Fold each of these.
Amino acid sequence: MKVRRAGGVTATERGRALALIVLLCLLMLAAISAVALGTTTMPFSTIISAIFQYDGSRNHLLVTTIRLPRVIAALLAGSALAVSGAIMQAVTNNPLASPGLLGINAGAAFAVVMAMTFFGTGTSDVYLLYAFLGAGTAALVVFTLGSLGAIGHSPLGLVLAGAIVATFLTSLTTAVLIFDESTLDAVRLWTAGSVTGRTMVQARTVAPALLVGLVAAFLVGRHLTTLSLGADASRTLGQNPIVWRGASVVVVILLAGSAVALAGPIGFVGLVVPHVVRMLVGIDYRWVLPFCALGGALLVVVSDMAGRLVFGSQSFPVGVTVALVGAPFFLYLAHTRLKGAA
Amino acid sequence: MAADCEHKAKISGKHIDLTYGKRRIVETLDLDVPEGRFTALIGPNGSGKSTILRAYAGLMKPSSGSILLDGRDLTDLSTGEVARKVGVLLQGPVAPEGLTVGDLVQQGRYPHRSLFSRWSAADQQACDEALTLTGTMDISDRLLDSLSGGQRQRAWIAMTLAQQGEVLLLDEPTTYLDLEHQIELMNLIKTLVDKHGKTVVAVLHDINQAARYATHIVMLKDGNVIAAGRPDNVISAKTVADVFKVKTLVIRDPVAGTPLCVPL
């Protein structure tokens, strides 16, 4: 608060804006490195010419069809997962909430497995649509169940309904997979969360929904802070918590649904990035969300690059490396912050 | 039960029934809150005090009857309109980790801002006043988690003051506070009523505290008003025995001159 005046900005706000710009620069640096580094190291000039003066050479082909789509998928999925995780935590007043709690992952997995079993293992572009529809349908069912009756007035209803629907769908998915080994093989990599072999077409397919979700998230940011005070406080401040919870769930469906369709259920990002951000910039969601978008993207891009470079495998799933990179960093931060507070 | 004749009713419950599921807590209750006074709701556990407060805050709809705020039915008002008139502090509010006092008080401006409006000079002034009045200006940068119970309670009250409503509803605001902070808070409420013309309704556990600070007392038992009015008229050995099932001697508080219950 300090010396905040109408229309003006405080020193804290200027610092946050600066930190956001630094984070953006870091992210760009990481993204360019991820395109440049690999079995063949690509100079910056080659990347630029591949994008703007494409000549069909092997290197240009590598940039435009393999590395760039992969990095874009990582950027999109990372930012969407972190932002939707932050929103879920605010909406449910539960610091351990993640988009998976809405049944997003279970719904997407169920839809993808069903599609594979009944329509055969077709092109991955088709799964994108099934995953998004499955995620969205499951989340809507969870929100409707969680808003009914007496439990609907507390966020606990949402958490309970989410756990029930997710468990139910996961059981069905497992049952199908037990009898269908070819589908099991096909979805194994998908369930770990991976951006391997993503195409520009796929990225372009989910990008509109995802970007609309991001803009909407930034617009509802301030209302999330009020919502995070709890349903009673929110209502006595003149907010309709059910309406804003509903709006937030729609944003989460757009974001997490797109992310899971594009990259599978990458865990950890949606849980840990918001925590790290809140430790560093506080609870004001107008700031938390932009930091989450950049931080989540950075984590996934760096993790995927590290997976490729360190393990030397193109198909090493980023869902695994994210946790390997993220967990120690989170522990370090939590440890130093707690020590600082004591 | 009619309120003091000289004060018109700010909030008025007319034959209200309040139910949780199938359990009826309050039945055909009439309860007026006099304008510009400090009303204390007292009664044993389960007498319906908190439920009535929730209903008057618009958090719970009466299953029958109506609650009027300035003569208008609460159900006809939007949550925003209610929030611009009534500030509410419920028991044991929990703020998310990482919230500062200043952040919390700013939330009090929520009902005054349109969907995407910017922070205005009026918003800032309301927050500054609320912080000054509650003596929390110096700690506005501190995290709520790091504060003592008394400071935290004042921060929440500052948030409700930033709403700039004419009414404050407080559910057991002094519970869990030590004596010093209890007195500090009661004096703050008294100032808000006497100097700033607020109408305050507080659920209080301590009869003697209510008698000393409140100007209007409503004594409740099983969802019914047993007595309402000035402390002198409400608190007697008979009403206390009836409501709290405790035999007491009611004497005069040697300092404030208000009724003082001493259990026998």
Amino acid sequence: MDFTHTEERRMLADSLRRTLERGADWGDLAELGVLGALFTEDEGGFGGHGYDIAVVFEELGRAGCNLPVLDAGLAGGMLADAGRADLVERLIAGDLKATLAYGEPGLRYDLGPIRTAANGGTVSGHKSFVTNADEAGLLVVTALEDGVVKVFGVDPRGPGVTMMTTPALMGGTISEVTLDRAPAEALGPAETLESRLAAATLAVCADAIGTMDTVRDMTLDYLRTRKQFGVPIGKFQALQHRMADVAIEIEMARSAVINLSGHLDQAAPTRDRHVSAAKSLIGRTAHLVAEEAIQMHGGIAMTEEYALAPLARRLTAADSRLGDEDWHLARFIRLSA
Amino acid sequence: MDLTFTPEENAFRDEVRAFLRDRLPADIAAKVAAHTALSKADYDTWHSLLNEKGWLAGAWPRKFGGQEWSAVQKHIFEEETAAAHAPRTVPFGVAMLAPVLQAFGSKAQQDYYLPRILSGEDWWCQGYSEPGAGSDLASLKTRAVREGDHYVVNGQKTWTTLGQYADKIFCLVRTSTEGKPQEGISFLLIDMNTPGIEVRPIILIDGVHEVNEVWFTDVKVPVENLVGEENKGWTYAKYLLTHERTGIAGVGYAQAGLDSLKRIARAELQHGRPLIEDPLFAARLARIEIDLMAMATFNLRTVAGADAGAAPGAESSMLKVKGTVIRQTINALALRAIGPWAMPFVAEGLEDSNLYHPGPDYAAKASNVYLNNRKISIYGGSNEVQRGIITKAILGL
């Protein structure tokens, strides 16, 4: 047993943390190798395993970074599976931003049955919850062709593409994308979608762990410095015990994510059982940490001006992304039967 | 034991329902149902409709033009208005300041201010909390120094709800630093148009402008604006906090929230079936409904106790803790029910219903409401402060 990360991963995490503290842009992340760490050597990267994904997203969550790294990993993964090494290379270099459009209205967290259909070099349909599509140069779209779900490349600024974009609860943007005979390049079958979403779910979980660490530290700072009744409020045992419970639950969540990281490369049933175990637990803990942090801070945490606000929203959104606590609980039960 | 309302109480409920059906403007109710922020004009319209009926001051004593509603009547009114999506009655003038003036104000203050509260001429806001005085309210530092026939006020108040609409503010100010902190506080009425007052918006986590900071720089306040005696303000403030306790559990809001949650769960599909049929979700829904049923009875026990003349007790702290947690749980379930529609987040949207939000209407504000209502376990004496009261006053620990 060894619960320490490799030297390479530790170095990547450290330099990513320092870069994010300075305020990083997309080029900085590419240069640092953050995007390359999401892909295996075969795919043109130098990572791509569970622990690589975990260290990267933990740092992004810790910093509250809104750059579309998850989208790059998810869309890029599908491009790699389609044998498009050329596009993956541009993505890793930071020259191309891509996002995956797979969700549809009415499906909640299910992957299907989808209705978007391909016909004669075009796709038509409605894609929901597409993250950071407004700044993407390529939409990777799932659509039915001859009764099979396949993956297509669509130019988000091309004809037949309409986007309605709003800010996203976790940061960044989220779009409803309407495709009306949008020209599309066939990329291949979508049979690896579940395994790529498993990796993306690990990313959301690890991101939440990093965010929880920051939120815990902010709350601890506040408990030490905020005085009421003549003493720091952290001297009140009622708050001490609640803070201790939060710390315990974060370590539980971290352990679940480590467990998932180590099983991400396993065959589907084992992998997905760990995906759902971790995501269900993360969903529960993310709400707890956000709610307790706000409550223990008091009114100041209700304000947009205080730095906790976007982090609390990010934790809230973590449960609503890629399957919530209950959706994964039910899936875990099915997979354990 | 008798769990039924009297015929008179049922008749009152029917009258409230009829009034709401006939007089509550549909556009205002639609805004409340959609969690869209109300304008000052919306509140003024609703207040004047209530005032015409004599119900704005329903809880006031008859000698001040009220109806002397019993606690049960107040409860029925709150329950029915919440169910009909009527705006809440803005409490600062009618329900908070007025009882203090009626109990401790001078005849001149009563004659001048009370009619203006009912007519809507004066919109009041509350100047209690300060950046350094939240749960520990008695540590407040805003100073009022007597100079001839006026006080000069300097300091800062915060969390001033709807202060952007206010004509006047009632403030707790420090007039003495001797003795215990509670002993040097006075209760002062201040015109918001006085030179030296600045209102600065605070934007909340859900993007709304609901509360404000109010800054006082050498603000001159006539001495006749002091309520009661100097340095007795803490007594009046505590009276104010214990006076309105029938609504503290928020049962009406919780019931309206639960009804709305069930509508969402019937409309939202999971694996092609209504979410309300999902065993995990159904269990969560049932658990909170069971809690709310018990809560409603707990609340009625307290309400009936108040009508029977029981002294205000720490059970209102129990109602506050449990009532806020139940409402927050319902908000969290609404967030869960809309699934991924929780992710689009239109933060500046509450005051502009034209802003685009994708997905079903019922999903538009669920995350905003969930985030905004984290405040209810913080304000009005945080749930930690309430537990402290329960520990001491009921449990004797």
